């Protein structure tokens, strides 16, 4: 059994927008006492900061991840645009890798954690769902937050982001060869979390 408190046990969770990565990541972190980082917030923060995105990535600080506007659709689109810039991704690599190996263990979710940021992570998950299911989830989230939008627009946004994330030249969104793929299209939150927790327990133990 690996002791996460001593070695910096890392759980890498990748997948497209609104597949459930964040929900699963937070639950797994809470279950095992690991720290959690939604790496998408790094790119959302860089996009939201404006100006030169490379300069923004180089000076990013943990407090930048607390901005109240990072969960908007606009921030998501900005994140997807700056994430295709190789220099931005390179500037954020050290931040993410340091977080991943922090004492006590860590869960990171994003698009390239298991393939680029932490290829040696002890556990790798690729969480996905159909574009239609993910759009419905995102639509409900946005409406619940008071955003005026419609399902067709959200679905188009989901598909656009998928294309950018999967087709970019640097660190495209793909499942690592040794990742466990979780399709949450027909899974409840509890079922998806249970599957992720079980995957960690196989490697780490209870």
Present the secondary structure layout.
Elements: H1 4-7, E1 10-14, H2 21-32, E2 35-38, H3 40-49, H4 53-58, H5 73-82, H6 86-100, E3 106-110, H7 113-117, E4 123-128, H8 131-144, H9 151-167, E5 180-183, H10 189-204
Helix pairs in contact: 2-10, 3-5, 8-9
Structural commentary:
With 206 residues, the chain is α/β, with parallel strands linked by helices. It contains ten helices and five strands; from the N terminus they run αβαβααααβαβααβα. The chain has one domain (4-204): Rossmann fold. It has a five-stranded parallel sheet with strand order 2-3-1-4-5, sandwiched between helices. Helix 2 packs across helix 10 and helix 8 (131-144) packs across helix 9. It is globular.
List keywords for this structure.
five-stranded parallel beta sheet, globular, alpha/beta, Rossmann fold, disordered N terminus, 206 residues
**CATH classification, class level:** Alpha Beta
How is the largest sheet built, in terms of strand order? 2-3-1-4-5
Which oligomeric state applies?
Answer: single chain
The rough form would be described as globular
Query: What integer value in Å does the Rg equal?
Result: 16 Å
Short overview:
The protein is of the alpha/beta class and 206 residues long. Helices cover 53% and strands 12% of the residues.
């Amino acid at each position: 059994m690996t002791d996460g408190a001593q070695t910096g046990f890392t759980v890498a969770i990748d997948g497209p927008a609104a597949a459930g990565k964040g929900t699963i990541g937070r639950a797994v972190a809470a279950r095992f006492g690991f720290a959690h980082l939604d790496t998408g917030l790094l790119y959302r923060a860089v996009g939201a900061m404006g100006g030169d995105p490379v300069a923004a990535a180089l000076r990013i600080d943990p407090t930048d991840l607390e901005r109240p506007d990072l969960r908007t659709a606009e921030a998501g689109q900005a994140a997807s645009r700056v994430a295709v810039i190789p220099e931005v991704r390179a500037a954020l690599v050290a931040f993410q890798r340091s977080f991943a190996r922090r004492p006590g263990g860590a869960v990171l979710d994003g698009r390239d954690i298991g393939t680029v940021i932490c290829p040696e992570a002890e556990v790798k998950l690729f969480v996905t769902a159909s574009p239609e299911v993910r759009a419905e989830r995102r639509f409900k989230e946005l409406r619940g937050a008071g955003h005026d939008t419609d399902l067709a627009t959200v679905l188009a946004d989901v598909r656009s982001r998928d294309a950018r994330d999967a087709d970019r030249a640097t660190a495209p969104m793909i499942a690592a060869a040794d990742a466990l793929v979780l399709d949450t299209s027909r899974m409840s939150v509890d079922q998806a979390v249970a599957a992720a927790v079980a995957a960690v327990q196989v490697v780490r133990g209870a």
